[in-house]
Amino acid sequence: MEFAICMKGDIGPERTKALCRQAELAGFSSCWFYDSHILWRDPYPAMAMCMEHTERMSFGPCVTNPDVRDWSVAASLFASLAKQGSGRFEICVGRGDSSRRMMNFKPATIARMNAYVSTVKKLCRGEATSYDDCPAEVQLLWSRYDLPVWYAAYGPKALAAAGETGDGLVLQIADPGLCKWFTEQAVAAGKKAGRDMSNFKIMAAAPAWTGSMEACIEQTRWFPAMVGNHVADIVEKYGKDSDLVPQSLTAYIERRKGYDYRQHAKKDAEHLDFVTDDVVQSFGVLGEPEQHVEKLKALEEVGVTQFNIYLMNSEEERIVADYGDKIIPKFR
């Protein structure tokens, strides 16, 4: 299993650089950044900065979407960072959550997300292509980069898209049973499309906290509330009794009363009351180091290839150190 960290744009530049250096030395292979330009600083300058202070770590947004940048601008940005980082760049893409909703826009459709991925990959490879928002054919003559793209998905259509065209699947949850359920759908869709899925990657992205379970739960209660946004969208589309979404995932949002995106991914947000302790424990990786190892082994057994820590609960340096000293060595 590979290990990654993910940060919001609310940590100062010097500390961001230091965390990336520390994480690389601790055995983390990737660093992801939230891409929500209104809530936090734009992540791409931070990635460029951190590339200059690391040697092996890859970078990318977790996640970006089709509707916040012109597609040729996005492709040029991605290809430029790949060139600057000697190929250490990839992206996670979704329909758009906080970055869209903060402007009162709806997320993109699956069809638009697929078109975006196809266009951006072609442009990064240096191929000439056109797209709906541009009347002319465009080409990045200077780029020859094969951009890896992960799909963030929960719903059946997005999971199918991930399997059919993506290089990996992002699951914002660390429950082994649910990860297995989602993974099987994406892999089955890829095989049905005739793809070789042997190198398909699965990311479980979730907060991690080491210490007493009581403290861990209180530090990470924000996470199931954030996941609840996506679940609520799926329930609205397919119905709460649909077999397209497992009951164990939908039941916990029944007491949900709303979500304030101004407090998105904030551990002291005011919209957390509906989240129960058992859900927090299920969705994250919590407890003493041996409990982390046990859960991560369970995730590995169901196909997860990368665990991405949402490193945004405070004490980031301590969490990275605990993983480097006590947890990552168990997977080497």
Quickly describe the structure.
By secondary structure, the protein is of the alpha/beta class. 43% of the residues lie in helices and 15% in strands.
Structure write-up:
By secondary structure, the protein is of the alpha/beta class. It has a single domain (2-331), classed as Luciferase-like domain (TIM Barrel, Alpha-Beta Barrel). Helices cover 43% and strands 15% of the residues. It has 13 helices and twelve strands. It has an eight-stranded parallel sheet, covered by helices on one side. Strands 5-6 form a two-stranded antiparallel ribbon. Helix 7 links the parallel strand 8 (168-171) and strand 9 (201-206). Helix 1 (13-26) runs parallel beside helix 13, helix 7 packs parallel to helix 12 (289-301) and helix 12 (289-301) packs across helix 13 (316-327). The radius of gyration is 19 Å and the shape is globular. The model has no long low-confidence stretch (mean pLDDT 91).
